[in-house]
Amino acid sequence: MRRRLLTGLIAALISTSAHAGALRFDGGEFAKIPDTVALRPSEFTIELWFKAYSTPGSWNHLMTKPTGTGVSDSFWMAFSPNTRMALEVGVDDVELNRWHHVALTATTTGPGVSYRELFLDGIQIDFWEYNPPWPYDDSPVFLGADDNNHDGIGGLRFVGLIDEVRIWGQPRTAAEIQATKDSELYGTEAGLLAYWRLNEGQGQIMHDAVATGSDGLLGYDDLPAGDQWDPAWVTEGAPITPIPEPATMGLLALGGLALLKRKQRQWHGVSLIIRKC
From CA 59, how far away is CA 46, in angstroms rounded? Predict the structure, then answer.
C-alpha cells in the first residue's frame, strides 16, 4: 500500500491589532484636526466612544466643528453637568465612568429638508429636523473641546477618555451603526471619510487610518515637546474587538521521498502551502 506521510512542523503565528489606547482629557486639553474636504460632508454619520469621569463645565464637548466666530458649529457632541446627552436638542442619560458609544447622523431628503438622528450605545434616542446646507468653513474639528472664542484654543472642555472617532459620508442606519460600533475598522470601508483609532500611544499626531489622510494634532501645535493643551495617551481603550492582522503560517518539511501533491489554502488572505510527502 502506498502511504502518504505528512511530516513537518507547522508554526502558526497569529497576531491581532493591539487595540490598547485612547486619549485622556482632564478638562484643560484638546486635540484638533485641520479642515479638509473630508470633514465637510453634506450628509454624514459621526461617531466615537467616550468615557466621562466628571462634568465640570456648563457643556462638556466631545467633538465639534465650529464655524464663523465660533459661537455656531457645523456639528457638535456634548453633554451637560447633569449628564444629559445633548447634540443640539437630543437628550438621554450618560453614566459616568462607563464607556458609551455615540453617533450623530445627518440626512437630506430634499431641497431645504433634512433631519438629524442621535444614537447612544446603538439605540436611537432623538430625531429632529434641520435646515441644510450645513454651515462649513475652514475651522478645524476639535476633540474634547469647543472653540467658542475662535482662537484655535478650545473651551468648554471634556474630562474623560475618547476613542475610535469616525466620520462617514452618508447617514448610517441603526443596524449599520450597531454592526460596526463594537469592532475596529480597516479604514477601507465604503463611505468612510476619516477614522482615528487613537492607538498611537505616543507623539503629537493622531493618524487618520483612511488613505486620504486627515491627521490631527494634540493640543495647539505638533512640536515634540508638547504644550499645556495636550491630552495624554493611555492604554485603556474602548471595549471593542480588534482587527485580526494577517496570520503567518509556515510549514517546515522534515522528510519525504517525493513531492506527491501540493495544495494551497487561503487563510485570512495569506497563502498556506501544504506539501504532502
Answer: 19
On whether both 173 and 105 belong to a single domain, the answer is yes
* Whole-model pTM over 0.90: no
Cβ burial of 95 (10 Å; 0-12, 13-18, 19+) is exposed
Q: Tell me: the pLDDT tens digits for 165-224?
A: 999 999 999 999 999 999 999 999 999 999 999 999 999 999 999 988 899 999 877 777
Chain-centroid distance, C-alpha 247: 24
Q: Exposure pattern of 171-196 as b/e (b: 16+ CB <10 Å)?
A: bbeeebbbebbeebbebeeeebbbbb
Overall domain count for the chain: 2
- At 275, which amino acid appears? R
Cβ neighbours of residue 247 closer than 8 Å, sequence gap 6 or more: 12, 13, 14, 15, 267, 268, 270
Looking at the fold, whether 105 and 208 belong to one and the same domain comes out as yes
CATH at 32: 2.60.120.200
